[in-house]
Design brief:
Blueprint: H1 11-47
């Protein structure tokens, strides 16, 4: 009885190598993209956190200046 040869030859092996190289290329691209996003988020968090307008400003008497919307009912009448 002849043993089974699991090695592929010719075009099958070439096709598998091409597919493997494409998958590795895509994985590398995704990794680079996620690393770029992570670096950007970290740089925004570290270097631009205090210069952002996200934090409310403080009034001269110490209270925060915040614009609040009116509380209205479904007809648009101001309740509070």
């Amino acid at each position: 009885m002849k043993p089974i040869d699991l090695r592929m030859e010719g075009t099958h092996q070439g096709a598998i190598e091409i597919a493997r190289n494409r998958i590795i290329f895509i994985i590398v691209l995704f990794t680079i993209g996620f690393l770029m996003l992570a670096v950007k988020l970290i740089s925004i968090g570290i270097f631009q956190a205090h210069s952002s307008s996200y934090y409310p400003t403080v009034n001269s008497n110490g209270s925060l200046l915040m614009a609040r919307a009116d509380i209205v009912d479904r007809n648009g009448v101001v309740l509070a």
